[in-house]
Amino acid sequence: MIEFHLVLRVAPNKARTVVDALQVLAKSARATPGCMAVEVYKAVDERGCICYDEIWETESVLRSMIASKHFSQLAALMELSSKPPDCQFRFIAKTQGLEFAEQIKGFAPH
Predict the structure, then answer these.
(1) pTM for this structure?
(2) CATH architecture, domain 2-105
């Protein structure tokens, strides 16, 4: 699993336009095979800070996304950021559920 995490900082008067554009891209990404989830949200503690996350099943589907028009559209939105965008590809090697906490704490939830 790989998370693509993007943070844009835009002028407050441009935030709605950028969020709307990201929502359109999110809808498109959700329909793409290999996309597990997409979220668009504003940071609570920083005005004009917009976050965009996609989670992809494999590196190969992520590579396909990066080579696509979808990523070109994301890159165009990155140009609207008033500060350099924070763009990260987070490679997640292992994911565990609540059973991990149960092992450590030695209890099961009710």
Answers:
(1) 0.84
(2) 2-Layer Sandwich (3.30)
